[in-house]
Amino acid sequence: MLALLALLACKFDAGGIAEEGSGAGNTSTGGTTSFEALTSSGDPSGPHGSSTTETTDPGSVSDSDSDSDTTTGGPTASCGDGHVDAGEACDDGPNNGPSKACTPLCQVNVCGDGYPLARAEACDDGNQDDGDGCRNDCTLPKTCGNGKPDDGEACDDGNQIDTDGCIACKKAVCGDGYVQANVESCDDVSETSACNADCSLAQCGDEKLNASAGEVCDLGLKNGIYDSGCADDCKSTGLYCGDGSVHMPDEKCEPAVPPPHATCAGDCQSISCLPDRGNCDGDPANGCEIDTNTNKNHCGECDKGCLVKCEGGSCSL
């Protein structure tokens, strides 16, 4: 009798287990439906219980994970849509960029990320080597050409142009051998026959004395004017009283070369006749052309005539 009761008990337990097994099988077969049912039934234990985790829809998990690629460090699938999603620190949509405030990875552009931020970082190589071409503070090494005046540099415009105001990190000046555009006409380092010391083109009349060009003077518009002190070719002192040549109409005579039978005043403006001579035609060029001792028309002096003759400066019969 006891043996029969034990056998019936075993059959009852086996049937119960079979029914439970069948119910579990239905749940696993319809995973999505089961997950939706759990989350829609309002069962608070569903999202946190072990059974819910086991039956979570694999598709739903995959969609959530795709928002951020944590294995490669690449941009999220939604990076660039203008919305800050999970895994994104920023998202400026089409304004994301390697030199923008928000990088192509939807991360805030900071020094060391490998993206040089415009107007804020001079460089960004993304490494910690402070001795290479980009320092760890995202500035270029102290060297001429980095666009930033460093110690010992008067300027640094970051270019190789040798006609602007900064050349080899020094202020452009006359005499540096480089012609500064719109400032200098030439620059031969020092004065030459073609270039003045102030880096202007050399030419007579520029009021700049250029000895290399053979100039001894340069008075500009006064060059060549009588007694100005400079000839019109800038190579001599020009015309003046006492230079040995009579310059009409500014001079009447020259002391060094007086006209015949006369002397010339120191101002080159008048002549004085020697004794018994007269400048009766009033022309200083031919000097004192009349012998007043014998000329009966100018006897003793100009315009004193004699009826017969003039002897010793006096009229005689």
What does this structure look like?
The chain has 4 helices and 8 strands; from the N terminus they run H-H-H-H-E-E-E-E-E-E-E-E. A hairpin with a 2-residue loop joins strand 1 and strand 2 (170-171). The chain has a domain at 76-141. The strands form 4 sheets. The protein has a two-stranded antiparallel ribbon. Strands 3-4 form a two-stranded antiparallel ribbon. It has a two-stranded antiparallel ribbon with strand order 5-6. With 317 residues, the chain is an alpha+beta fold. Helices cover 16% and strands 6% of the residues.
Low-confidence segments, given as residue ranges, are 1-71
The percent range for strand residues is 5-15%
What is the β-strand count? 8
Distance between the termini: 214 Å
- Molecular shape: rod-shaped
Helix content: 10-25%
Radius of gyration: 57 Å
The main pleated sheet reads as: 2 strands, antiparallel
Strand order of the largest sheet: 1-2
- How many separate helices? 4
Overall residue-averaged pLDDT value: 82
Q: Provide the succession of SSEs.
A: HHHHEEEEEEEE
Structural class: alpha+beta
